[in-house]
Model the fold of this input.
Amino acid sequence: MTVSTTPEPDLSTWPTGRLLAVAARLAEQRWVAVLDGMGLTHAGLIALHTLRDGPLPQRSLAQRCQVTDQTMSRTLDRLAKAGFVTRTPDPADGRRHLTRLTERGRAVHEQAVRAEPDVLGGVDDDAFRARLLDLITRLSAGD
Done:
């Protein structure tokens, strides 16, 4: 029996865009696995992160997370079932509900934040983060 081996690719020859795309995909795969173990999704983590400073109506939360109301509704349903958030009538407007973190939600958010360095392989360099923020800002602006 002959075993065919493919040589490892020389990553140093790859274009930067391909490297960035592969790094993003690998980081996302790791995050999915870690968050799944916590009973979270990416969307759920973003919602919890946005709610950490206080309760918000669903529409405001959706806008801040840059998703549709429908997407946020599904995300909040999952978070409420897991006990990470509660939704109560807004005393200022009875047609709306306010979503707030529970203690369990705050704890799982903190757990996810603490897991980030391991998920990203220790990439927590401030200069790298600043470059990513700059890249995202420029690409979002269409530069």
Q: What stands out?
A: The mean pLDDT is 90.
